[in-house]
Amino acid sequence: MKQKCIFILSLLAFFLITSLQCTNEPVTVATSADGVEISFSNTGQGETAILLVHGWTNNKTIWDLQVPVLAEKYKVIAVDLAGHGESGNKRTEWSMSAFGEDIAAVVKAAKLDNVILVGFSLGGPAILEANKIIPEKVRGMILVDAFNNPEQQYPPPVVHMMDSIMMDLIENPTVEKAVGLGFVVNNPEESTEKVKKMLDRDQTGWRDILHENFRWQNEDCIPALEAVEVPLLTINPMHSMAEIGIFTKYVPSFEARYLAGTGHVMMWDVTEDFNRTLEESIQVILSMQIINR
Prior knowledge:
Order of helices and strands: HEEEHEHEHEHHHHHEHEHH
Helix content: 40-55%
Low-confidence stretches: 9-22
Strand content: 15-25%
Shape: globular
Largest sheet: 8 strands, mixed
Mean pLDDT: 92
């Protein structure tokens, strides 16, 4: 009888420990508003969460040199938007607002309440759309070379030309194109290989997303900025200056920071400088929160 009781207690202890272990595992999948599964990494601890959003045709691995550094101080979430990385692509409407829903779903799944959104390139419009959905969760936003002029318009001939250039790049990526188009400056061979790995997946929706980005900038950029009630900063390459006067018409708190010797993918080109500037930008947002309180 004693042995039987010991066996039962051991079994109960095993299930209890297993249950606790499962409970403590961080959530890494969310379901967006249209049912698409969204994959994300979930590391670090801290009251403040830094949520990183990649650009067009890349994925959360573009932040691999930032995540471990940030995770020393913050909870860090890196997202694969729908159609990218490990996320699903069964989407019928490839809209920027849908990407905003992807981010909102991740914030809800990871139970985040104090979030700084960081968006690279196309990720910039995506975080601005997310802010419209979950403004009560967002404490600040950082654009990473997302766009320079909120009032810039892209007429159909320009969109057609950009379609030709960008689709050619992803269909046949080369070092020469990556450098010539200003994506990378340093270690171009290594960077191009990283890009090729990110492109190695079903590319459903990618052309639609490219066109949606230009439509959003023509029609929805300014309304998205007008909805911003938190600090908004940008980090850009020195050769890609933000129109500060135009930004501050819509977001008075807007600030810009610039890095030298880099192409579009600053997080790879000048990693140490970028990481330092990103941390400085996060601290600006956190200090502004204290002042506002």
